[in-house]
Task: inverse folding
């Protein structure tokens, strides 16, 4: 039976590949493939579920493919199926099918008709990977693709400013969650000395034994998972991204942010429950976050006067309650709550344009002028305070900037000395020295050799921060990202005597091709327009959609889109950092978080946004 | 300060006059009201005192709008033959002289130009970004928009903005004073809010400094979010446009925005920033300095004229051809049917005339000359049912409604509360899962869908006849007196030239449109009824015309309606293609029988009309059976996933004022407003004034709104509907932080060819000239070329084109005319557009055909 599980992933994937083959005007073909794929997936889901339930619902687990193997590392794809997977699979495939049919008509003649179906199929594929994943690596693959799909669908209307800006905002938060997941994987690797599968987590005694021994590690892993889950499910303090993700066509908002994507935090909490069920602190934190989110998000939803934002916050509030239910161990309730909330919010989003006529009509017949109730001045003041805070979304956006982004930008701005040729030469020499030290370690004093990894890791981080904050030429930013990545690779290589040459080659080979393609694409644009400064959006996708697409592929390859060599490279990379090397892990993980954001930022600034040459109709910035 | 005391001359940027600037701002901002009342209007109404092309290029220079198609589009239109070579040559020769023909033709077809535009508005305020690297819009707009939406909100939020009756700023002040939190981050802005001299000018001194820049700054600022500013200005001018009224002024908005800007600058830069006038090196710009003409502008003018005349010329040759056709003689008129002038009724009229060749159809603005407010039973408000500029003194109330108003459970905002939301997830949540399935596979009418037939209940009664002149409600007289009724019926009948030869049954068919999930549904309803279905008007008019006392007075005035003639009202749902008839029970036995027959004829006509419409709907097979077609069309009007329930006024291009015979034999592809008028009954053109007066604002307004939304859907249109987010029940925006989007969405305009309206009037040119010159407002539309005008001399049948204040003869170039002999195969042979790019889309619009269908 477990062998069938892979089909839930293959079907949407095949659908995705087939959907790429059609001409973009062939709406019948594109939507036909999508409907066929989602329908067969739904049908298979139903049949499978019935059989599984008849077979007294056994927990299924299957090791699917080994991606990479050495003596000490084994990276493999693993599938797992239990009641939680069942509910998520049923709800997910049902909603996907409905939304795909809905979209066939809704998106008729839309500029990005093909893009929409491509990305949505890819999304369904990644969603199914996540919910069927049997280990963290598999889950992470789905998780990552899902993030990229989100970016692409939020920036669906790529010729406008707000969608592009918000897609970057959302991917930044997602990326934060991703890095937490990487850290959880890293620590768990060191805790178990293997890539643990979820089925092993169900072994209560095994888990307890490890956790008692390494109490702090267990806490760290659980905390990282919790942050990742909160980011994905828009819990506090991340909540503000959810309404801002609703930039695409209503249907994509409904499937992504109304129902499926936003509940993945819920999923990962249930999935890892055995891990943290005995850690009381974590449980309390989850209940705390859930409760606080439920209260604050409800307040924000109550003051909202824009429909989609209101739905977003009510959904966030319910997810807060679901978090509490999970922590208290009421998983059946949580699953039911998830299904209900997903259906309800999907429906509400799909019909959200109707509220204008429905509510106005309703008001026409039942309007009663508001009477201001006399309350004591203090109560009024308290009420107003809550009103204003809710209206301002409790300044959460500002909080993100002040805590995360502004400090990084501040550092980046103070690294301007790097933007000149002399600095590049120095950086290259420094790199060459490092490379020399790696190959001829016997010639380097031991004390220096011990220090080098940290220097290079930190150097890499600085370069990436520089790229992240770059406002000047896009080409420079591209170089900084590449430099940063090479420095990081070197630092890890230097750290581990057993880090083989083939490992570093694997890591860099994926990048190298992407680096070259990316460079050539940018050069092509630069040949047309000497000014590709990153302080504005240029919107070159209007004139050069193909170059833009190739550049996007290069970006994804470079940051390690799953299955590219870079992806496996990253995984190996992390397993080489030992658990006591905190500084290194902080610096490396921060770099990894920022690389993707910086690189997508380059893509967005050069290719997306309102086209700067106004010889045709272009959008207002405020739209 | 010194400069101000010296006094100022506006236009030389010497100084700043607040009242003047506010007035100018309001003038140029979009004037679309909240979406529940959708009134079409010229998007560039502010420039209407200029000639059309001057207005275009000025608007483009000042605001950066795209005002014509792109050069490459025109060239492609020429390549595919949509722009006619002969017409193009004639236009170039006309405008530039025959010796310049080759040069200009080369310019038009081959020369490359730099088409980039640099808007004047916005150039000053960008200095914040270039100089201080601060993005004020991003810092200020999201919160500002959220405050505005919350203040205006009509019913989305559960917890409302604490509103102070005194107005917007007083509310903000009260909220700020009574709260531990603040909308400001720094002290200064907050203190300024309470300062006694809280004025635009004082704040501008802080933020801009030099007074000479003030006007430019305010324009930059307000046009960075023209949607919201326009909404505020509109609500300031017409507070009654909101059911739950709000007191606000543009001035208050500007003050708050300036405060937020000061606050944003303070937080980012502390005390380090200098006013804008001190950091910019550029002198203030006179925003309204006339544009400098370029060769490119001339090229655009020629192309646009050629694009327009390629179609007009075809229409005119079609009309002259049709005039020569022998007219069939009617034995006896079976029935008469009055329809709205709306282009969507043009095809239905054609079909009903084909099915019953003895019937007669007439066109008149769809409020049938009866203006009033309507109060549905249990309604807390009144709906205005007449053209927007008219303010009626009458009230019609609905009573005796049998049906109960239904509710839609899933729309309850209880689901947004915490605990009810929790309960809903387990109850409504599962229900909505089922609903999702039904929505997709079995669409049906529900309370959440705006239903044209629910505007007034068929079973209800109306207070049409006034009981006593003192029977008033809120200053409105309830119902009409006999005298008032007679005047309206008489005016209506004389206007359309229906003063004799009455058939036994006369229908007045209003129209409305049902659609689902459509915030712009008002734009599909009847424009002559302020964007609402006209069912009440049709019913009221018929009641009046049937009234025995009215008949008696009419008789005295020379209009004798036979006793056996009865009027009957109806409503045509232009999306679902259904007709509902009202007060059928009053018909006498004879007429009841006739009515049953006529109803069958109407049904057949609706079948064909539905079929004709499907040729533009990709999801419906045009070749399927009529029954299936009707079902598909009906489903379309109640389907949640259909962003194009119908195509509204898309493709409107013509307005024909004259007898039906002028166009009866032509296939006009639902592109013509048809207003019945008989020059013979009005030799001096007295009635013509009343008929032509609304043509500019109504038909011209519709046409120009479609024009501008088509050529610049980003800035003047609303963009695609799909991401729209309903804000406060008054408008739509993209995203949760976006500006309101006035104008028409792309789904409504994609079938439209951006050409101006051609008004064709059947009367002597001299009379028509006198008519349009009777009021300056009317004349402006014609002399400034916002619409084209042709008079057909009824005696010579020659066309006279109005140009520069006089009429000159126009002889159509094209002599060839296409013919339709079989309607079904003709419609089935048409091609649906490949894409909504203008060059593809325009190919869906058919040329003029002569109908030569065998009976």
Result:
């Amino acid at each position: 039976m477990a062998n069938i599980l892979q089909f839930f992933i293959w079907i949407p994937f095949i659908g995705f590949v087939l959907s790429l083959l059609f001409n973009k005007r062939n709406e019948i073909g594109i939507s036909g493939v999508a409907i066929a794929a989602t329908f067969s997936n739904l049908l298979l889901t139903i049949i499978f579920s019935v059989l599984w339930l008849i077979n007294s619902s056994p927990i299924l687990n299957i090791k699917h493919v080994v991606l990479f193997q050495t003596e000490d590392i084994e990276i493999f794809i693993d599938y797992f199926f239990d009641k939680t997977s069942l509910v998520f699979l049923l709800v997910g495939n049902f909603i996907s099918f409905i939304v795909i049919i809905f979209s066939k008509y809704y998106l008729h003649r839309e500029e990005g008709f093909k893009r929409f179906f491509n990305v949505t199929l890819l999304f369904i594929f990644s969603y199914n990977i996540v919910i069927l994943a049997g280990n963290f690596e598999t889950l992470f693959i789905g998780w990552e693709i899902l993030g990229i799909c989100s970016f692409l669908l939020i920036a669906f209307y790529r010729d406008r400013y707000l969608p592009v800006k918000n897609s970057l905002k959302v991917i930044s938060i997602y990326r934060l969650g991703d890095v937490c997941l990487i850290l959880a994987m890293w620590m768990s690797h060191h805790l178990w000395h293997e890539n643990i599968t979820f089925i092993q987590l169900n072994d209560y005694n095994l888990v307890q034994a490890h956790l008692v021994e390494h109490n702090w590690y267990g806490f760290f892993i659980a905390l990282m998972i919790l942050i990742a889950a909160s980011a994905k499910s828009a819990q506090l303090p991340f909540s503000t991204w959810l309404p801002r993700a609703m930039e695409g066509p209503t249907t994509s908002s409904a499937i992504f942010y109304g129902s499926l994507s936003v509940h993945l935090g819920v999923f990962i909490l249930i999935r890892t429950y055995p891990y943290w069920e005995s850690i009381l602190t974590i449980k309390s934190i989850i209940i705390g976050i859930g409760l606080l989110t439920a209260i604050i998000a409800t307040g924000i939803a109550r003051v909202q006067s824009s429909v989609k934002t209101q739905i977003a916050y009510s959904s966030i509030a319910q997810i807060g309650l679901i978090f509490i239910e999970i922590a208290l161990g009421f998983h059946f309730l949580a699953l039911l709550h998830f299904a209900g909330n997903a259906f309800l919010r999907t429906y509400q989003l799909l019909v959200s344009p109707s509220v204008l006529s429905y509510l106005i009509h309703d008001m026409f017949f039942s309007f009663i002028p508001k009477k201001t109730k006399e309350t004591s001045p203090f109560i009024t003041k308290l009420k107003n305070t809550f009103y204003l805070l809710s209206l301002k979304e409790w300044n959460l956006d500002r909080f993100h900037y002040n805590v995360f982004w502004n400090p990084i930008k501040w550092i980046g701005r103070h690294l301007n000395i790097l933007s000149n040729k002399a600095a590049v030469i120095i950086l290259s020499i420094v790199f060459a020295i490092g490379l020399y030290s790696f190959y001829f370690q016997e010639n380097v004093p031991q004390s220096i050799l011990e220090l080098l990894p940290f220097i290079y890791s930190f150097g890499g981080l600085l370069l990436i921060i520089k790229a992240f904050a770059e406002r000047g030429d896009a080409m420079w930013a591209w170089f900084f990202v590449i430099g940063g990545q090479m420095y990081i690779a070197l630092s890890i290589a230097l750290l581990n005597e057993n880090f083989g040459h083939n490992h570093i080659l694997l890591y860099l080979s994926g990048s190298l091709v992407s680096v070259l393609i990316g460079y050539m694409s940018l050069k092509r644009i630069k040949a047309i327009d000497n000014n590709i400064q990153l302080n504005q959006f240029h919107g070159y996708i209007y004139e050069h959609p193909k170059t833009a697409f190739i550049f996007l592929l290069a970006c994804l390859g470079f940051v390690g889109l799953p299955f590219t060599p870079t992806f496996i490279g990253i995984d190996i990379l992390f397993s080489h950092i030992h658990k006591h090397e905190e500084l290194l892990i902080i610096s490396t993980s921060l770099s990894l978080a920022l690389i993707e954001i910086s690189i997508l930022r380059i893509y967005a600034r050069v290719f997306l946004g309102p086209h700067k040459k106004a010889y045709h109709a272009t959008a207002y910035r405020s739209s | 300060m010194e400069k101000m005391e010296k006094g100022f001359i506006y236009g030389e940027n010497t100084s700043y006059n607040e009242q003047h600037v506010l007035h100018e701002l309001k003038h140029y901002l979009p004037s679309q009201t909240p979406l529940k009342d959708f009134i079409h209007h010229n998007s560039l109404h502010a420039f209407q005192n200029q000639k059309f092309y001057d207005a275009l290029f000025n608007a483009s220079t000042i605001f950066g709008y795209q005002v014509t198609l792109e050069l490459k589009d025109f060239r492609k239109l020429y390549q595919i033959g949509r722009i006619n070579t002969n017409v193009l040559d004639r236009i170039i020769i006309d405008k530039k002289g025959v010796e310049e023909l080759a040069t200009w033709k080369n310019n038009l077809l081959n020369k490359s130009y730099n088409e980039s535009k640099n808007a004047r508005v916005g150039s000053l305020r960008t200095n914040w970004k270039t100089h201080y690297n601060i993005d004020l819009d991003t810092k200020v707009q999201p919160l500002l928009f959220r405050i505005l939406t919350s203040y205006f909100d009509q019913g989305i939020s559960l917890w409302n903005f604490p509103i102070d009756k005194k107005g917007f700023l007083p509310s903000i002040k009260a909220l700020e004073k009574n709260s531990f939190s603040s909308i400001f981050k720094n002290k200064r802005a907050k203190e300024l809010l309470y300062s006694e001299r809280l004025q635009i000018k004082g704040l501008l001194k802080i933020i801009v400094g030099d007074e000479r820049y003030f006007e430019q700054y305010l324009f930059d600022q307000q046009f960075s979010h023209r949607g919201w500013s326009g909404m505020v200005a509109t609500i300031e001018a017409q507070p009654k446009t909101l059911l739950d009224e709000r007191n606000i002024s543009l001035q208050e908005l500007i003050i708050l925005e300036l405060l937020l800007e000061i606050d944003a600058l303070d937080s980012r830069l502390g005390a380090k920033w200098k006013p804008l006038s001190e950091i910019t090196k550029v002198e203030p710009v006179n925003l309204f300095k006339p544009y400098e003409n370029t060769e490119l502008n001339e090229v655009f003018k020629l192309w646009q004229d050629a694009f327009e005349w390629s179609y007009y010329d075809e229409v005119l040759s079609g009309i002259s051809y049709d005039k020569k056709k022998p007219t069939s003689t009617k034995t006896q008129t079976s029935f008469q049917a009055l329809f709205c002038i709306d282009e969507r009724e043009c095809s239905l009229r054609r079909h009903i005339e084909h099915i019953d060749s003895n019937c007669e159809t007439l066109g008149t603005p769809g409020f049938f000359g009866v203006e009033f407010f309507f109060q549905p039973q249990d309604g807390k408000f009144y709906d205005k049912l007449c053209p927007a500029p008219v303010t009626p003194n009458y009230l019609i109330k609905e009573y005796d409604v049998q049906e109960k108003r239904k509710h839609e459970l899933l729309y309850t905002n209880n689901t947004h509360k915490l605990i009810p939301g929790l309960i809903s997830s387990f109850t409504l949540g599962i229900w909505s899962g089922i609903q999702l399935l039904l929505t997709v596979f079995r669409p049906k009418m529900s309370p959440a869908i705006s239903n044209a037939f629910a505007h007034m209940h068929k079973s209800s009664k109306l207070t049409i006849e006034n009981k006593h002149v003192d029977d008033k409600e809120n200053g409105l007289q309830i119902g009409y007196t006999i005298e008032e009724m007679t005047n309206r019926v008489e005016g209506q009948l004389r206007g359309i030239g229906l003063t004799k030869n009455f058939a036994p049954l006369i229908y007045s068919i209003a129209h409305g449109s049902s659609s689902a999930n459509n915030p712009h549904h008002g734009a599909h309803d009847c424009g002559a009824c302020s964007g609402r279905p006209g069912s009440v008007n049709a019913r009221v008019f018929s009641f009046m015309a049937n009234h025995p006392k009215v008949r008696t007075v009419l008789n005295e005035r020379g209009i004798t309606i036979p006793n056996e003639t009865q009027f009957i009202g109806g409503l045509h749902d232009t999306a679902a293609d259904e007709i509902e008839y009202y007060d059928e029970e009053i018909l006498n036995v004879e007429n009841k029988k006739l009515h049953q027959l006529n109803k069958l004829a109407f049904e057949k006509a609706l079948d064909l009309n539905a079929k004709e419409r499907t040729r533009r709907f990709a999801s419906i097979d045009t070749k399927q059976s009529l029954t299936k077609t009707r079902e598909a069309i009906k489903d379309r009007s109640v389907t949640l996933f259909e962003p194009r329930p119908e195509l509204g006024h898309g493709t409107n291009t013509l307005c024909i004022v004259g007898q039906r015979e002028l166009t009866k034999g032509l296939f006009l592809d639902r592109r013509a407003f048809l207003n019945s008028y008989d020059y013979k009954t009005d030799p001096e053109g007295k009635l013509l004034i009343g008929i032509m007066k609304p043509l500019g604002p109504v038909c011209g307004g519709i046409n120009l709104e479609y024009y501008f939304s088509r050529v610049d859907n980003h800035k003047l249109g609303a963009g695609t509907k799909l991401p729209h987010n309903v804000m406060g029940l008054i408008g739509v925006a993209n995203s949760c932080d976006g500006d309101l989007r006035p104008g028409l969405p792309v789904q409504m305009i994609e079938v439209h060819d951006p050409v101006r309206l051609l008004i064709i009037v059947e009367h002597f040119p001299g009379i028509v000239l006198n008519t349009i010159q009777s009021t300056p407002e009317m004349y402006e539309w014609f002399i400034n070329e916002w619409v084209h005008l042709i008079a057909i001399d009824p005696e010579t049948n020659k066309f006279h084109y109005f140009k520069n204040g006089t009429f000159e003869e126009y002889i159509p170039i094209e002599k060839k005319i296409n013919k339709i002999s079989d309607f079904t195969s003709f419609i089935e042979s048409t091609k649906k557009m490949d894409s909504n790019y203008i060059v593809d889309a325009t190919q869906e619009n058919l040329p003029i055909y002569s109908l030569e269908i065998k009976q």
